[in-house]
Specification:
globular; 47% helix; alpha/beta; 464 residues; Rossmann fold; 7-stranded parallel sheet; 3 domains; disordered C terminus; 5-stranded parallel sheet
């Protein structure tokens, strides 16, 4: 049966969207994902997202946006779909009608004059992953606050994401969850909870008094599942934005706001996340050594890692350059295991960091941090440099105006790397890594940047 699933994925790839072969392979794959056999459903779900959807999205290619829309419209109406009946009741009983709606919401013709003073509520949906919510959703929320000063702004998404991106801002939060690793049925059923959340958010308002902003959210399966009337729904299709350019997603999101809402939203990208005064104060150190925040987290995508040998040499490089190091334990047992290995191999002295740390322990070179990413953000804000892989922590550090050194491994394309480059007012150094990259040369580049950082800190000390 697993071989059959692979054949169906190949069939989807080989046939043109709209053809009988494309439709048949798509529906058969969806039926397998909807079936009652948990093992088969899990295998088909993984094939559907990892084998097709994520690859299409990661290319940031407009033609593949159309392929995705045609594919997912068929999936949502396939036998066994938990949302087909509800879509029918809303007037989208066939894939074609849903596809037509998707094309309307992405059409440039929808950009028209908007009475911003008439809008009383703007709700922005979460993109679910922490890094995407820092890089894309947060700028949209801040831009909405600027564009609609009289409106109530709300973020609809997971609590941990809200803690990360709206702390200190006059933005409400309405909680909703989405299982990134869940079966297809469970992922689609999240739409029912989203519709309830949206209805609760705009209760008592007319459609012309509110906006639902969708930043290419997984909650709507990248804009396919409707949550509001067309006139009240603004969709930022991040996968086709900025074709031919090298801008980051955050910059493209702000450009989209400026075009659709007729405002200058550039300033929204320069507002750092709030950190409490106690946390913002850099940990004291008698030698006034520079501080490096480091994370080897990869969000469950092992292809983003370079490897333990590189990580050990990186930490040693920073130690020899005189840095104090705060090393985040990351998310989950696998990433914690990576940190345990690095700590065991570290040549310097090691301690554990707590949220009420009174100061840097004497003669300690590295402190590990176990806790939320939002709390780790305080140390990225305090750091003189952040070093890590493509991850939410890198985007958070950039938002805090901390210089970033990002080792970007596992990028499926150059455009993917450009889109997910962290954006912030401080320098961001993106160092690509592929299987042919010379690790020694990569470390020399990092060492050069680290040397410049320590030199800059020395200059600041001399100027006092």
């Amino acid at each position: 049966m697993l071989v059959r699933i692979e054949d169906l994925v190949s069939g989807v790839r080989e046939h043109r969207p709209g053809s009988r072969g494309f439709t048949d392979c798509t529906r058969s794959l969806a039926e397998a994902a909807f079936c009652s056999d948990p093992d088969l459903a899990a295998a088909a779900t993984k094939a559907l997202f990892s084998g097709l959807v994520e690859e299409w999205a990661d290319c940031f290619e407009p033609s593949l946006c159309d392929t995705y829309a045609a594919f997912m419209s068929e999936v949502l109406h396939a036998p066994g779909s938990p949302v087909a009946a509800a879509l029918g009741s809303l007037g989208y009983g066939e894939p074609e009608t849903l596809l037509d709606r998707y094309r309307r919401t992405t059409s440039a013709a929808r950009v028209s004059a908007l009475d911003r003073g008439h809008i009383k509520k703007v709700a922005v949906l979460s993109r679910i992953t922490l890094g995407a919510d820092v890089a894309v959703t947060r700028p949209l929320l801040l831009a909405a606050s600027s564009a609609f000063p009289a409106a109530e702004i709300e973020f609809i998404g997971p609590k941990k994401n809200a803690d990360l991106i709206i702390s200190g801002q006059p933005i409400r939060h309405r909680e909703i969850s989405y299982g990134r690793s869940a079966l297809l049925v469970d992922r689609l059923l999240a739409w029912n909870r989203l519709r309830e959340a949206v209805q609760g958010s705009v209760n008592g308002l007319r459609p012309d008094e509110y906006l639902i902003v969708d930043p290419d959210s997984r909650l709507t399966q990248l804009g396919l599942l409707p949550v509001a009337p067309d006139g009240s729904y603004h969709f930022f299709e991040s996968r086709s934005a900025g074709v031919g350019g090298g801008s980051s997603l955050g910059a493209l999101a702000l450009q989209w706001c400026g075009r659709v809402w007729d405002v200058d939203s550039a300033g929204a990208g320069r507002v750092p996340p709030q950190v409490s005064p106690a946390s913002r104060k850099r940990l004291s150190d008698e030698g006034d050594r520079p501080l490096a925040a480091v994370s080897f987290g990869v969000g469950g995508r092992a292809s983003k890692r370079v490897g333990g040998h590189f990580e050990d040499r990186l930490l040693e490089l920073l130690r020899q350059r005189g840095f104090r190091i705060v090393l985040d334990y990351g998310l989950g047992e696998e990433e914690a295991g990576v940190v345990d290995q690095r700590v065991a191999a570290f040549a310097g002295t090691v301690g554990e960091l707590s949220s009420d740390q009174p100061g840097w322990p004497s003669q300690t070179d590295l402190l590990t941090w176990r806790g939320s990413l939002a709390a780790f953000g305080a140390w990225t804000a305090a750091a003189d440099v952040y070093v890590g892989y493509d991850s939410a922590a890198a985007h958070l550090a950039a938002a805090h105006a901390t210089p970033v050194v990002e080792i970007f491994a596992g990028a499926p394309s150059e455009r993917f790397r450009q889109r997910w480059t962290p954006a912030g007012p401080a320098p961001v150094h993106v160092l690509p890594f592929t299987g042919s990259t010379d690790i020694a040369a990569l470390l020399r580049k990092i060492d050069h940047i680290a040397a410049e950082t320590t030199l800059s800190k020395s200059r600041v000390r001399l100027d006092r």
